[in-house]
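Record 1 of the preview.
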Amino acid sequence: GGGVKGGSAGSKPRPSTPSNGQSGQVTNKLERSEHAVLRSKEGRPVGSAINDVQKARQSDVLVQQDGRWVIKGDNGRIHIVEADGSQVITSFKNPSKNTNMRIQDGRWSRPSESELQKFKEIFSDYVRW
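->
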């Protein structure tokens, strides 16, 4: 059998359009990375990312060492979002004990006032505080 491995029948690639303002307009929509699309298909809570950003309080926002945002959602959901707000990188369930451990060991940290302001500007379509 000389079949092609890894192809998924029925899925058509979508044409890529610039979402970073190159087309003359800045879009403020949260997109899914390829990784996030895969995780969603595995049953990960990627689809709830926007809803969790909308409901997030300032205390639900953390910053990862690489500058990406960590948004805590209901029922232990965690969403990792690109620093510029363009994509949900991944989503997963995380016990609060593990979240606290990541804060204690420095992988995640509480944002400064200026970082919170930046978050609010990036996610102005969603944030309600």
